[in-house]
Automatic annotation (TrEMBL), chain A:
The chain crosses the membrane at residues 18-36, 56-75, 96-118, 138-159, 166-187, 228-246. Keywords: Membrane, Transmembrane, Transmembrane helix. This is ABC transporter permease. Coiled coil: none annotated.
TrEMBL record, chain B:
PANTHER family: ABC TRANSPORTER, ATP-BINDING PROTEIN. Keywords: ATP-binding, Nucleotide-binding, Transport. GO terms for molecular function: ATP binding. InterPro entries: AAA+_ATPase, ABC_transporter-like_ATP-bd, ABC_transporter-like_CS, P-loop_NTPase. It comes from Lentzea pudingi. The lineage of its organism: Bacteria, Bacillati, Actinomycetota, Actinomycetes, Pseudonocardiales. Residues 2-227 form the ABC transporter domain. The keyword ATP-binding applies. This is ABC transporter ATP-binding protein. Belongs to the ABC transporter superfamily. PROSITE patterns: ABC_TRANSPORTER_1, ABC_TRANSPORTER_2. It comes from the Bacteria. SMART domains: AAA (SM00382).
Length: 251, 303
């Protein structure tokens, strides 16, 4: 508990988490607002309210989580941390828990905020959240952010540099996994096992507009919750590697 | 007490610290002296468990740093004053450190007061001058009221007032019975700050002794003699078996003799003396003599 409090103080005594959260909120909710404003009243579906949160805002949250570690390396406060808490694994785990929790809460705010703004701008559309699939589609964003944050922190610990970690995360999430689909035949099969593709699969809302959503056309071998578990598994595996490396490495 | 036993650190084929053994006793300031690149900082990082020794170990009150429970209460360290987030306030920096070792919140205000930073506690550490950053670093080191303190080059780049303040501060800490290890490449600074010296060069221990012993053993005592009749005095001194060297503007540097002896000889032979002053060996000379061939980066002087 003490270490969680330490990481909370550290995170909230600098400005970057506030800026990143605000940016994620503006991008996520803002994109939904633009879509809602440009769609005929009554035509808006729940499936399009999470474009902003699951794509654009997710990237910002990944950056925020990576920054939580890389700035510590940049300013060597990680050394001050390891002096105060020589058990590096618990210090870094505490950071991961705090950042992942904040990312999760932020995800819920952005997801439900997006639905809210869509309702305001397009009151005639049916945006009610009724089925379990619809709940998963909206509320699941928080889980995605939390797991994404774990993955981003792992990358941050391994790379240690802000520029490198951010580049890896953004290219991976926004470019690489999509580009692999270009490979004839095998591409789509590989995509079924890529972590961010599985994350998107988890959010997918079945029914009419399935084709509009990210990850459409990929034959996933896992159930939607299975995909989330897979995404979480990759994130945790990467974190374990990062923790082992951090423990052995000279700080 | 700090105890290093066969401490070794290799980076690939480079040996940064080579089989280093020493002890640092409480109650006095121990200087950790060596030229740049001698391995002082690496040794300090190994003492603090930041770097993993290739071989050997180092114990603080009998335990490795990483096994200390709430380490800030045992060891306070200032390795680099810039180890702060520039956009975090001085108080917030100390607050998370205090929290990490379950220290009461009012310790933060106490140490801020002790180093004179109360006025600027709410300001971001990134805007601090070097002197203020050093004070913040010292505040962090004092947070847990530790028995052992380590400072790496604490006076580097400070103005005379800051240097005096840190020197007095360290001596007071030692006088309270704490173990104080301070590294420096500034010999003159160590001569007035430390009473015990650990001297290293190229990662190897050169000597561990008291500062006085170190100077005495390394430089023979010499006496400066100025006189209009040096031509007369010189041969007399040489006859007595003393070594006489020509100095600047008509002076002699005599080694092996005390000023009393030289004065007596001069009086007995009616030689006029203008100056007769014992020269205490400087720490610089002692240091150069001992580490002459252990400097990592040589530069030819006056070539």
């Amino acid at each position: 508990m003490t270490l969680l409090a330490v990481e909370r103080i550290k995170l909230f005594s600098t400005r970057s988490p506030y800026w990143c959260s605000a940016l994620a909120l503006v991008l996520g909710v803002g994109l939904t607002a633009i879509i809602a404003a440009s769609t005929d009243n009554g035509q808006l579906t729940l499936g399009v309210t999470q474009f902003g949160s699951s794509q654009l805002a997710l990237s910002v949250v990944l950056v925020m989580a990576a920054l939580a570690v890389t700035t510590e390396y940049r300013f060597s406060t990680i050394r001050a941390t390891f002096l105060a808490v020589p058990n590096r694994t618990s210090a870094l785990l505490a950071k991961t828990v705090v950042v992942a929790f904040i990312a999760g809460v932020l995800g819920e705010i952005i997801a439900f905020g997006s639905v809210g703004i869509a309702k305001v701008l397009s009151p005639a559309s049916d945006l009610a959240i009724n089925t379990s699939g619809e709940w998963r589609h909206v509320a699941g964003v928080g889980l995605l952010y939390g797991i994404g944050a774990i993955l981003a922190i792992a990358v941050g610990i391994l790379v240690r540099q802000t520029a490198g970690a951010v580049a890896i995360l953004l290219v991976w999430n926004m470019l690489l996994e999509q580009l692999i689909g270009i490979i004839p035949k095998a591409g789509v099969k590989i995509q079924a096992w890529l972590p961010f593709m599985n994350a998107n699969h988890f959010l997918q809302l079945g029914g009419d507009n399935a084709a509009e959503q990210a990850g459409a056309g990929i034959d996933f071998k896992l159930s939607q919750w299975g995909s989330l578990g897979y995404f979480a598994g990759v994130a945790v595996a990467l974190l374990v590697v990062a923790l082992i490396v951090a423990k052995r490495r000279d700080a | 007490m700090i105890e290093a036993i066969g401490l070794t650190k290799r980076y690939g084929r480079t040996v940064a610290v080579d089989d280093l053994s020493f002890t640092v006793q409480p109650g006095r300031v121990t200087g950790f002296l060596g030229p740049n690149g001698a391995g002082k900082s690496t040794t300090m990082r190994m003492i603090l468990g930041l770097d993993r020794p290739t071989a050997g170990r180092v114990l603080i009150d009998g335990k490795p740093y990483t096994e200390l429970n709430r380490p800030l209460q045992t060891v306070g360290a200032l390795l680099d004053a810039k180890w702060v987030h520039p956009n975090r306030s001085a108080r917030a920096h100390l607050r998370w450190l205090a929290k990490s070792n379950n220290l009461p919140g009012n310790r933060v205000d106490q140490v801020l007061e002790a180093v004179g930073l109360t006025q600027v506690a709410g300001k971001n550490a990134g805007g601090f001058s070097l002197g203020m950053s050093q004070r913040l670093g010292i505040a962090a080191a004092l947070l847990g009221d530790p028995k052992v303190l380590l400072f790496d080059e604490p006076v580097n780049g400070l103005d005379p007032e800051g240097i005096l303040w840190i020197r007095t501060f360290m001596q007071n800490l030692a006088a309270e019975g704490r173990t104080v290890l301070v590294s420096s490449h500034l010999l003159s600074e160590m001569a007035v700050t430390a009473s015990e010296l650990i001297v290293i060069g190229r990662g190897k221990l050169i000597t561990q002794s008291s500062t006085q012993e170190f100077i005495d053993s390394a430089t023979g005592n010499t006496v400066l003699v100025r006189s209009p009749q040096l031509f007369k005095l010189g041969p007399l001194l040489v006859d007595k078996g003393f070594t006489v060297r020509d100095g600047a503007d008509g002076s002699f540097s005599v080694s092996g003799a005390t000023s009393d002896q030289i004065g007596d000889i001069a009086a007995a032979n009616g030689v006029v003396l203008h100056e007769l002053s014992p020269q205490r060996g400087s720490l610089e000379e002692a240091f150069m003599q001992l580490t002459g061939d252990a400097v990592e980066y040589h530069a030819e002087i006056g070539k």
